[in-house]
Fold each of these.
Amino acid sequence: MVDIGKIKMLLESVEKLAVSGSAIAFHIKLTSPELMFQTYPKAWTDTYSEKGFVMVDPIVRWGFTETGSIRWSELSKQDEQNILMQSAAYGMTYGVAISVESDSSRSMAGYSRPDREYTDAEIAQLSKCTQSLHDLTASRESMDAALREELSQLAAKFAR
């Protein structure tokens, strides 16, 4: 049984560190997540979608090929479309990408802030939360409709 209270507590914890927003894609199959929590500014997500950035986003590319964490500033050489610099205009100046995998299931997250790089301790905390969220939302079988709806409603509460 999925512990919705624990998921909510973990999401609140990461949001305190991701003051400019976050995106967490859980249990990605091919290119689609089973569940998505996103709090990036709506103006940014609209621009991101309109321009089809997901196909060239260095955070997403890194997350599909690596596990662990990396600061966005370390991905700048892989950012041919200048996505990271464009996101700074929406208050997302600094960030960290985190990718976790277990039991052949991958989840990835991006966390952002406007004022400074994340510290190693903050990255460790975000990584631990991301792994816990990944584990809590794992389902050996497909989630039933009621649980999916409850998680969707929780995701909507965290959307900005």
Amino acid sequence: MQHYLDNSATTRVCPEAAQAALEAMTNIYGNPSSTHTLGREAKKLLDKSRKQAAEALGCAAGELVFTSCGSESDNWAILGGAEAMKRRGKHVISSLVEHDAVRRSLDELESRGFEVTRLRPAADGSIPKEAVMEALREDTVLVTLMLVNNETGGVTDIGAIAKALREAGSAALLHTDAVQGFLKVPFSAKSLGADLISVSGHKIHAPKGVGALYVRNGLRLKPFILGGSQEDGRRAGTEAMPQIAAFGEACRVGRAGMAENIARMRALKEEALARLQREIPELRWVESAAPHILSISLPGWRSEVLMNFLEAREVYVSKSSACKKGGRSHVLEAIGLDARTIDGAIRIGLSRETGPEDIDALCRGLKDARESLRHA
């Protein structure tokens, strides 16, 4: 039996989303921009899917633009937001623990003459509001911070930061990469108060290849992809209707059961940590508020060895962000963990499909790994 605990890298597509994608590929297959019957049917499906996603995000349908992934949403928000504001200044605030989609966008801004302040995180990978306000300047035009850290599960209080920026009279745009938080921690576009919010489909049981960017009403970004007038002229290219339809359904299903799913994931995370603490005395872990991400380490044993040991028992975890592909975690370095701990770290990612049997298999596997490696 497989025990999949790498849901922070990607989730299995849920049946409702898969069926919606199949329906869009085989029956409602017209181009939403076409004016004939099949085109109008596709446009109706597009509108329905946008409404479903917007309801899950807590925004108006017209504030949501479909993209190909969270990385595209991040790139567009950061590069487009900074360019839109550059007449006011060229200072950007971010952190040392962002996803590479944000980090590389910040590097690009620096090559264009922007100055970027990268804040140090708290011990859980979150960014304190006070640090943001200390870094704020009159020429700050963009603040971009992750809502839920993808490696530690630390939750940054984006709502408090938005409020503080408003009270300070700052004109800076606020963007948050909410890919790991969407439908995993309670929030809405209104409660966050951000101008730009990035989300992704494959983290919420929709297929890969679809995401969305919330763009606050009244804020206009230059299109990131040029061409036709799709997405109200904001993103060119024929809409990827199978993925979009699946995304909409995944949003509907996830929103309907969100409170129950969060409670179940939190209980399983707490159970896993309590049991591992009992059975592996040298265990180290990162305390974090997100219910679905647990970062642990067995110092002295390399992550790859532990992962291979678990995989032999059909238990699947990761060592850090899947996008790193083998590099040492910049996130764990930034929160101050020593090299020995980082080299033994693994990330456990839960989802609404995770059950007690998965946690049991994980704990038994790690206990067996510890005993086997100690006597190797």
Amino acid sequence: MNGAPAREPHWAAQKERGSFALMWLTALAVRRLGRRPLTPVLYLVVLYFFVFGRRARRNVRQYQSRLAAWSGRDELRPTTRRVFGQFMAFAESLLDRLDVWRGKLGMAQVQLHDPAGVRERLRASVHGGRGQILVCTHLGNLDVCRALAELEERVPLNVLVHNRHVAQFNRLQSAAGDRQLRLLQVSEMDAALMLDLSQRLDRGEWLAIAGDRVPLHDGRRVVVDFLGHAAAFPQGPWLMAGLLRCPVNLMCCLKIDGRYQIRLEPFLDTAEWERGGREATIARWAQRYADRLARLCLLAPQQWFNFYAYWQLADEGGSDADPRRAAR
């Protein structure tokens, strides 16, 4: 034995701690009783996960340490209070998520940061334009972005996910009062999937996919530098954009000073690569995205809701050495 820590299972392969029945009861309770009575219960649940979730605590501490070192901001270095604060921020986001599903949170409660006019392109697609891709992140609250896309603009938004619990989440959201969101399970980017997605874009629908979650198939990833260390990022969003010849925009929603701020910005006007240069081009795009994500983390440092070992590489070496080898 070499004394090295045991490697954690892939995030998508980890068994959910809570059952769907418990999530369904929580959604039903919020719908019937409102948010305020449920808040103390949810905070107790989060406290339980904080106390007994040694692995999650370690991973949050690692993220906070690397963000502080990369940015040079000592005030971001992890303490027990700061680590717990990230768990509590997640609990708050869950309550806000239920509000969105119930239609209780709309644009009146959300600020929009959109200097390049991405929102206008969203609107145009409803009236005959072609859809585009929104690359999202687990920084902040993804569901609050619905206040812009589905609830306000009535833009058909297809959310592509890698996990196998799509049916459960669809049932949960329906129980909470939401019947508009389209969750599409994506396991392989085969010809049938590409044809389906292309047709959705032609109908003016938009595609949303996370840019910071690697799927189970390790071949669909690229190693880039993130906060000064090597991390595996998915190829999926960039491969999809190139195959569909579709522009890419970035979207995230951060809670700043008690109010959500949706941030929209263009990322790729034309997603294409030269013959033989696909891998190198995708690596450059992924590195650009990782650099931008790192900057966004500084706007809301405790709203990074990835609780697994983010910098644990899936290759045999698992080393942080040579972090930009795939992005050259």
